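Below is how a single chain appears once it has passed through the pipeline. First comes the sequence as given, then the structure the pipeline wrote out for it. We keep one example in the README because the format questions we get most often are answered faster by looking than by reading.
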Amino acid sequence: MIDPRTSRFDVAVIGGGVAGIACAAELAEADQRVALIEQRPTLGGRVHSHRDSMTGDMIDNGPHLMVGGYFATRSLLRRLGTSSLVRFQPRLEIAMCDEDGETVFRHRRLPRELGLAAGLAGMRGISWRDVWRTRDLLRSARDESREKLDAMSCEVWFDRLGIPESVRRLFLNPICLSALNDVPARASAALFANVLARTFSDRGTDGLGFITVPQTDLFEGAIQNLVEQAGGEVMLGKRAKQVLFHGERAVWVQFADGREITAQHVVVAVPHRAVPDLFDEQHRGALDSGILESLGSAPIVNIHLWLNRPVLERPLLGLIGRPTQFVLGLDHIWTEPSRHHRVIGIISGPTGHAEKSHAELIDQMMEDLRACLPEAWGAEVVRSLVVKERAATFLPCPGLLMRRPGTRSPWPNVWWAGDWTASGFPATIEGAALSGSEAARAILSVTH
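Resulting structure:
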């Protein structure tokens, strides 16, 4: 192991989430000596896993889905050699369910607008007239000014386009809440437009991507090998306390135990709310604290149930009009079997459910399953676990997209990375991977 008291690195990357991993991977591939620093014992940030002490099964802190248009994420996984651990649908298929039964959106391999139209037309409760009234959605998502769209909520955008209630209820509202972590009335139209444009782009022809292993397995081992081959080190369980400067340039990263490493460049790839803590009072004054505070935070609640019998016939099901918005069936996703039938309920956004007790949330999920799935009536809960990420994402409010910071910081050799930067995306794995890649390329542009 490299001695951090005397070590010199080309780049110190603070934060071992997806943004930090993407940045470190691209730099290491370019033969840069990287220190990837993570205070937790595992990598992945919000995309990590741990073992359940009672069952021995692995638990994802929060399940993540991908879409075919997640180009930066897929590039990262190819670089790490783990892309085979994500199984993509051959075409986008999303099943939704309510008390009247199931309806499925199946994307057709047709030009953008026609593919969306055909998929909507196949859903119960959406008429051809409703499909016709949705005709301008993708054109607007693709072509309209992002500054203009960021001045309005998704709800206002839908109103302006004349999107009918059936399309909103059965398709757009659930997808918006899942992707942006807030309801259409409070979420930026520009952010959702970027999601739709990427999902239904001509390049992103695959459907949803399901991670078939515990999420940590996507990164750990693979990123260590890549970084170490270039002479760097992945430092787990090491908390970076402060970035230290000589003049206007960052020179050292100081750890909580007082030790230091030196680096030519420093990438800050931590959550936005943790950025100010890495700088002393003098340098903190140069930060745009206004935007960091305005980004705020929103929770996601994940309810893990082990059941005595299967209740889902699909890997993913949306529950229309229920507090539990989506349910994942790990029987259909993970390659490693469990002794029981595992389902994960997802409650996104500031809905107030993060304040409820674990027992209330488990009861609510079972009520939601039974309201939509007859199979759930005979199911018994063998084991349960609730994971509350109280600050899972930033708030996707209108007016923030154009204010989010880019890769450059106020100092010439300090760079920002994270899903909160100006990637154009909401707080997704793709926004994080894209920001890490952009930070790496910015550094390489000034060092080569």
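The chain has a mean pLDDT of 94.

See the next section for the split statistics.
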